[in-house]
Amino acid sequence: MSGPSVVGRIVAPLVNTNEPESQVIEVHAQAFTAITEGDLVCVLETSKGAVEVESEFTGFTGPLHVAVDQRVEAGQTIVEVFDAMPDRDAQPAPDAAPAAPAAGGARLTRKAAKLAADAGLDLATLPTDRFLTERDIEEAIAAARPAPELDPALLDYIGRSSLVVFGCGGHAKSLVDLIFGSLGLEVLCVLDDRADAIGTEVLGVPVVAGRAALAVLAEHGLRMGVNAVGGLGRIDSRIAVHDLLVGAGLELPSLVDRSAAVAPSARLGAGVQVFANATVWSDCEVGDGAIVNTGAVVSHDCSIGAHAHITPGALLAGHVQVGEAALVGMGVTTRPGLRIGARAIVGNACVLHDDVPDGTIVPAGTVWPKS
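The structure assignment produced for this chain is given below.
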């Protein structure tokens, strides 16, 4: 007689698309007990916030695979749910092993897998180096679409000051307001790869198509683009859009809000975005695609790597180096002269007294280094 079978596995979601890991701050589920769909399992936290993980299944839990203060990766199993109470001493059933990659080697979240199946996407063409989310699948679907037919009136309107904004989330709103209020530039339209975004608007600017429209717009004289995949988007997606716009032959202007303070000696790379009340001061260098967000301070002689994000209210002392694609959370403060490594993530309200190595995640509120 066979034992209980796995109904499903509750896995760690991608809480923040910039961070593949999250921290377990609360555990509510119990091992070897009944559980119902919608029950709270645990709470996970990243530098951007927390999320409650609820059960998607009704049944009986097996052993818990997480504990408070543990770090978990997106897609990691939290607990298996069985159709009957499992034996505490029994080994997991064969079908309770970690989920295997999908056909072609790709690993997808449940919603991403459904989206890919509905679109008939060939999974063998997808990346295998990470868990793929809905956003990844939307980008893959958009890349396969033929070039759209755009309104001739829109194409005729393209001028020397026209630019296209790629992405239609909250970061796009901030950029559209920045451009409208500060610059001699004009937002022609917005592009986004999500099918449900097309036909909507961002502060009155129409979302007309996905990435396939870039070639059409460039053929009709468009010369500038803006990357609106922001700090909540996975950093690799932001870098990919930057490269997409450059590959389409578009210039990425640096955008500086009129309320920001940028020293004459500061050097801004292509596609840098400096938001309201931010400061980039003497002899600083800010790499391509980096963001200095609202109210952040980058003091004299700092170096900010390409695609790094200095989030609202962060305060960098003089001579601080921030590596490529690093994230510096809201309200972070630093001593002078330290280095934050490439792809490091420094959570909100951290106080840094020493260097942060490449790829390190410093939890929110930490005094670094930990004693």
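Interim note for the steering committee: The radius of gyration is 23 Å. The chain has a mean pLDDT of 87.
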